[in-house]
Amino acid sequence: MQNNNIKINQTTNEMILNINVTAEIQEILDELEIKLPKLRDFYQLSNIPIRITGKLFTETEMEKIKKMIQAEISVEVRFDDTSDLLGLHAIKKTFETQTEISETKFIQNSIRSGQKEEYPGSLVICGDVNAGAEIIAGGNIMVLGALRGVAHAGANGNKKAIISANSIDITQIRIANLVREVSEKTDKCPICKVENDKIVLL
Question: Are residues 180 and 137 in the same domain?
Fold first, then answer.
């Protein structure tokens, strides 16, 4: 398991845990279990609060994280009400923001395996997103070629975001905090959107 979903930084007034926006809750809890003993040693001499940033959590998820930390360390735990979308910059909660009109970045090439492209608005990829590549957008994702890598639209919590591609050949689609398993390759320019709190392919 790679333990790189939680970046820890200390300032004068707080300890900051920056969480990878694409990480699943269980991955975060597993990594916390490994990193908490080191933090516990630090907190023998300090009582600065811990601030969780970088990813928006549900109330249940926040409670799980808070309980795990406070079981090891007697410290105040705060959660940001903003997401910095993998450190790009602070974005206010936009769960109901309209996505028909949004700031858009155009990528005029394919995204290769190992590459990551992230943007707080919408992303248009003028090529393929290959397996092993990752694209993350606060708004919509449009792929003019084949989508074979990880795609996460509405990454700051916006369930009105959509994902569209010329063809989709991946196992998983993510919109906001929702995940949809894709069992087979989908052609004919499918559109993925949220309906009744579930991701559907149209």
Answer: yes
Q: What is the pTM of this model?
A: 0.55
Residue type, 43: Y
Residue 110 has phi, psi (to 5 degrees) of -75, 155
Handedness of CA 7, 11, 15, 19 (dihedral sign): negative
Q: Which two tokens stand for residue 80?
A: 């940001």
Helix locations, 87-162, DSSP H: none
- For 132-150, write each residue's pLDDT tens digit: 899 999 899 999 999 999 9
What six digits make up the tokens of 83?
């997401």
Tokens of 190: 């499918």
The whole domain housing 149 covers 104-201
Residues in the chain: 202
- pLDDT tens-digit readout, 89-121: 434 444 445 566 678 899 999 999 989 898 888
Q: Return the biggest CA–CA distance within the chain.
A: 60
Q: Are residues 49 and 130 located together in one domain of the fold?
A: no
